[in-house]
Write a structure and sequence with these properties.
The chain contains eight helices and no strands. The protein is an all-alpha fold and 200 residues long. The chain is elongated. InterPro entries: FKBP4/5/8-like (IPR050754), TPR-like_helical_dom_sf (IPR011990).
Length: 200
């Protein structure tokens, strides 16, 4: 009897948290569409906090200190286990929230945040080939000057597109051109620096 009561309490808690996370995602998207980027990030992060206790430790990052604090307060032995179907729903929603956070971070020119949020998605088992996360991480890396890292993600995107039936996102070509231009600019700066050194 006690086991049934605990199970029903876990079901109620799960449904409430899932409902809260979906509502936060919707509020975040409304804020994003209204151009309220900071507000959008706030709501997306709130959605992640609703899901925190269902996300395994390996899927979270230490920089998510507030989410970690909330989750770690709960004894790991009392953490409810989810069915495969529920876990998939939680992961899909969590991935959508983190991808949206990466998207908003790019709009705010917070490239390191975008890279971090996209990497969170790619660190979840089964989501290593998530194209949105790879594309957003590639863009963040490119704008941070990590051209090799950006090219690696772009190569992965092209490889995964070739494996599947979907075409390559047009943004891949745009980013390739951006990376190539950045390389040329960097080479030009290096050459100018060398010339100045030899003149003096």
């Amino acid at each position: 009897m006690e086991g049934n009561t605990k199970a029903s309490q876990h079901d109620l808690a799960f449904n409430e948290r899932l409902k809260g996370a979906y509502a936060a995602k919707e509020d975040g998207t409304t804020a994003l569409n209204a151009g309220k980027l900071r507000e959008a990030i706030f709501y997306y992060k709130k959605g992640c906090m609703y899901l925190g206790e269902y996300i395994s430790i390996t899927q979270r990052r230490c920089s998510d200190a507030f989410v970690d604090m909330l989750v770690d307060r709960q004894n790991v032995h009392t953490r409810p286990s989810l069915s495969a179907e529920r876990l998939k729903e939680v992961n899909n929603l969590y991935v959508a929230l983190r991808n949206n956070m990466a998207h908003v971070s790019l709009k705010m020119d917070r490239y390191s945040d975008a890279v971090e949020f996209a990497t969170m998605v790619l660190s979840i088992s089964g989501y290593e080939k998530n194209t949105k996360a790879l594309l957003r991480r590639a863009k963040g890396l490119a704008y941070m000057g990590d051209l090799e890292g950006a090219e690696k993600d772009l190569n992965s995107l092209e490889c995964y597109a070739a494996e599947g039936s979907t075409g390559v996102d047009p943004m891949v070509g745009d980013l390739r051109r951006f990376v190539a231009k950045k390389r040329r600019d960097d080479d030009r700066k290096d050459q100018e620096m060398c010339r100045k050194m030899f003149k003096s």
